[in-house]
Amino acid sequence: MALARWAATVGGYTMGSRVLGFARDILIASILGAGPVADAFFVAFKLPNFLRRLFAEGAFNAAFVPLFAGTLERDGRAAAKSFAEDVLTVLLWALLLLVVVAQIVMPWLMHVLAPGFADEPGKLDLTVQLTRLTFPYILLISLVSLLGGVLNSLYRFAAVAATPILLNLCLIAALLGLSRWTETPGHALAVGVTVGGIVQFVWLIVAARRAGMSLRLRMPRLTPGVKRLLVLAAPAALGAGVAQVNLVVDIIIASLLPPGSVSFLYYADRVNQLPLGVVGVAVGTALLPLLSRQLRAGEADEALKSMNRAIEMALLLAVPAAAALIVVAGPVIAVLFERGAFGATESGATAGALVAYAAGLPAFILIKVLAPGYFARQDTRTPVRIAILCLAVNIALNLILMGPLAHVGIALATTLAGWLNVGLLAAGLARRGFLRPDARLRRRLPRMVAAAAVMAALLWGVAFALEAPLGTDGLRIAALAALVVAGLAGYAAAAAALRVLSLSEMRALLRRPPSEEQGQG
Known about the structure:
Blueprint: H1 2-32, H2 36-75, H3 77-113, H4 123-134, H5 136-153, H6 158-161, H7 163-177, H8 185-210, H9 224-254, H10 261-296, H11 300-327, H12 329-337, H13 344-358, H14 361-375, H15 381-405, H16 407-431, H17 439-465, H18 467-470, H19 476-497, H20 503-511
């Protein structure tokens, strides 16, 4: 019951953050559109975000939380607090050095990250200015990650889960309240990023103090615990880095395309990330501990069944989500973003990228489901090798497709590389006997596809009928809501008719642990 309560807490705040993030992006699209200032800000925001995902929330969390929680359990709060203070001090000085060096080399760094911007007068200089304003965020969010690891280990989840909401609120406030005082709205947003980091850091300092874990700065020293943290973080950083490098490569290549290309990809990816974040992360997060427990207990057959049910659950939601986004990409982008500086031309370009990304949505979600099959068996090398290969394929496809398809080619390359990643992960598990689709999965997968096809046809018809309201101010939000309801109802009806998932099975999923499911059809 406690685990369910914690998951509900994190999930609720995460959904709230994503909804607020959409409001933020709608506001940015309205004021900045997809022009040079928007391109410059998205690159400036991408760099500290890249480092955040790579180190702060990726490698660092993967290494710090087990060590801190283990020390807390074995040696008590005082020893755990001492370890956290040692890490805090070393982390702070290392990050201060990184920020200072980055501020100095920023012009040369931008020539690497956005080389195409140099061809447009003033655009590269603007990107350098904005990135210098946003870069201190990596220092702040890394410290936030450390405090978050401490609080999560103490089962204080709410404060940590709320931190992304604070960042979104700061960005919205900066855009609405600071833009009139800055050179461009992009400068206001860049300041808002760093201010958001400060607010998040102070928020968690207060939360840690209330939890009885107020950390002090010490003299920096490489204790055995800190050295162990660095050893564990290195391979984790490599694994997390491959996916993040993939995103940076896309930005580098997109910067060589016509103005607005970086922004088109950003807005399209934001829409695609909603089902990916909710479905993929939720299923993958739940599956890893379940597989780990079953394998430690010697329940190989149960682990195989859990993998099948996780794939089934992921595809049950991913396939219709992908079909819907492909069919109604245009109306979705237009209703969400088409206002102010973001016009019909920008909507059309962004919708094309969304169609390409949506075609890979099931793959992106399956990667998060299949990877725990390796991690639960303490095999972190194989997924990294596969990811590196797929990174190379993605770069090659980017260069091939960017010519004929422009920014849509970059999105399509990401999708094709994602499907290759799924194929290689699945083949590796199957070859070792860790993945074998059972009769239930083989029977239901084509039914899911058929139900999604029925829903897609219905959506196409409804979108055609609502074409006028979807293009009318004051009516288009209601028209999009009607489109969403029609899609959900259509898929539910088709799934019920095709016996994809019965109501009794849904009750069973809610009432019993997945390991106790009876594989009935």
